[in-house]
Amino acid sequence: MSISTRSFTVNGKTYTPPASPVVVICLDGSADEYLDATMAHDRMPNLKKMTLAGYRGMVRGALPSFTNVNNSSIVTGVTPAVHGICGNFFYDTNRKEEVMMNSSEYLRAETILAAAANAGRKVAVVTAKEKLRDILSHKMTGIAFSAEKANQAQEATHGIGNVETTLNLKTPAIYSADASLFVLRAGVALIEQGLGDFLYLSLTDYMQHTYAPEDEPSLAFYEAIDHELGRLLALGAVIGATADHGMNAKQKADGSPNVLFIETMLTEQFGNGFRVICPITDPYVKHHGALGSYVAVHLPEGVDETAVSDWLQGQPGITEVHNKARAVHLLEQPEDRIGDLIVLSARDVVVGRTPAHHDLSALDSGLRSHGGRYEEMVPLLISHPLTAAYRSKALGDPRNFDVFDFTVNGTHHN
Amino acid sequence: MSISTRSFTVNGKTYTPPASPVVVICLDGSADEYLDATMAHDRMPNLKKMTLAGYRGMVRGALPSFTNVNNSSIVTGVTPAVHGICGNFFYDTNRKEEVMMNSSEYLRAETILAAAANAGRKVAVVTAKEKLRDILSHKMTGIAFSAEKANQAQEATHGIGNVETTLNLKTPAIYSADASLFVLRAGVALIEQGLGDFLYLSLTDYMQHTYAPEDEPSLAFYEAIDHELGRLLALGAVIGATADHGMNAKQKADGSPNVLFIETMLTEQFGNGFRVICPITDPYVKHHGALGSYVAVHLPEGVDETAVSDWLQGQPGITEVHNKARAVHLLEQPEDRIGDLIVLSARDVVVGRTPAHHDLSALDSGLRSHGGRYEEMVPLLISHPLTAAYRSKALGDPRNFDVFDFTVNGTHHN
Description:
The structure is a homodimer of 414-residue chains. The first copy, chain A, has 414 residues and is of the alpha/beta class. Chain A folds into two domains: 8-247 and 372-409, Alkaline Phosphatase, subunit A (3-Layer(aba) Sandwich), CATH 3.40.720; 259-367, 2-Layer Sandwich (Gyrase A, domain 2), CATH 3.30.1360. Chain A is built from 16 helices and 19 strands. A seven-stranded mixed sheet of chain A has the order 4-19-10-3-9-7-8, sandwiched between helices.
């Protein structure tokens, strides 16, 4: 059956897909250094081929540099200000409670995936973590399942049943390299079996939280990713890949986590009533202890916002403090979900709430994390040559959430 | 004659050099993408060898991300707050005039180079541009000359005469790839002839201002750099290389420069009397038109600093505005040389003074420049394996101006 090339428009942008399978990949946590290290060992021959034939460059992600935020941006093509997902967690000031944002009820924009399906593409979404599935498959006709719960997928609810036998893949452990490799292997199998021709494959960053770029397990992981890229290329796919965020070590010289507990600090300095939200918090804390480089602060009644902001800005390790207006303008945040102050920390520093809120004993090894400015820049990788217009676009301020645009609209693929 | 391994201490740090030639290189304007692109073409085999045997990672430069600032940091090992050089230019509020800062009279710290010479090393400095020579050779016994004026070097003043015949190299044109390659070739010749065993080689960024990473002239340039790295490795050198700043395209979709003229904007909004200093300004304007992503603003008497700051912060393309206290704390600036407000612009935006202050017709091609936050992160490349302590240090917030420390103190080189 031929592949639909019908144009569709979503969130103000028109996409005209090629007659080839389109595969967009979110290489979760892939700081550029991971690619550099593995490529220096000649262990990513397919990525090398891709970048020589196509494009490799750096793009700016959405802030906070977290997974849900950037996956939401990638599948909608817009900023968090528009799609509304600004973390895994936020404090709902109306309901006066802390709320998980992993549900599509919080998504305020349509997705490219749903629109592609409506335009006749066979859309398939595979994500490592179940938490992302609901947002990514919002209003979408097609296949959507997670590696984490692959063996629970049902035809009626996931567009596919019996995943393990249909795709000949075992459901992996979530804290493993296989959780990500499963996603890519499932993508290959879906194309091979004619079950998908417009794919979004979203990996998980357990490996990057755990290993530095030169560590052998990381090199082997990226080598295995490269193997699947080769299989996708062999199937004639037009591939675009980017990352949701980078990754940096956040530890002191002795290897212990380098944490500023912001709620504790503010309480000591200004008194009670501060509420600090760590939007990285999710049910999967083993690899980062809910510590990232970005928190939101809700101020108690009557406290002087400027005094708090100025004091925070003067603390070593704090790199940015923004009030609501500036966070909306500069960090592209949704005004109603971010609290009073947004605080970002340095390349090697994470910000937390209070010591009691973070179980550091759950960390496997040294702390590596993300969320701030130093994890904002990520790679953009395109398998096919860019058109002149998109080469020019790449010389501006391209974003990681332009990846569908670059892949679908920006390539010479015939 | 044997090479001195006597320790020396400068600016609070002790250096214990190896008995091998030490070569530290500033790859001016080398955003990591330049290395990625050339390595993907297999045209940097020696750098590849170096990074497999030694180290490749990203480090944070000094701000503003300009050449003089970072060269001064590299040779002193300290921030601009300590060494005092915060641009090519500043407004001296006592003398009430705009002053060039290319002279060592403005340098407030001792250099590692002078200290190494005092400890018995044969120190040699080769810089592409003459403007840097005075600062880099401050109080130093040894050889110091520029590619630009190589044929004018004198034994009495430069520690070497007849450079062209002694080193068998022709003085290059300053706006050329050769201006940088000359520096590396001179380094090779100095070691070969026993004239230097502790070298600082500082290139120029004309090529990066002019070409994007994938452009053939840039690939050929980095390939030629790699050839000289190979010659230095063959001579047994311990090599550390970093960059002073990255490089980004600063242009609109139509290829025209993407400029905010800050003095013009402030005058229109708040009236006369503003003075905007572009610290990138120097006698070499052909490649950037004195436009970078960082300016200093001196306010007229009586104007409300907060009002100006808030207004600037709200303008599209402006990413950071800091008052003096914050610029000192956060950007590590010398308090007496920076004016009232520091303004940084986006990845694709430069800030200028007024249209009359910038000759855009002098630009060879599209505008590529630096100076801001998006040119802050640069590569660190070390030829030999890092010790455990320096591998750990690299997992923190290492700086480009730690390059002598990493190279001299941080390597296993026997």
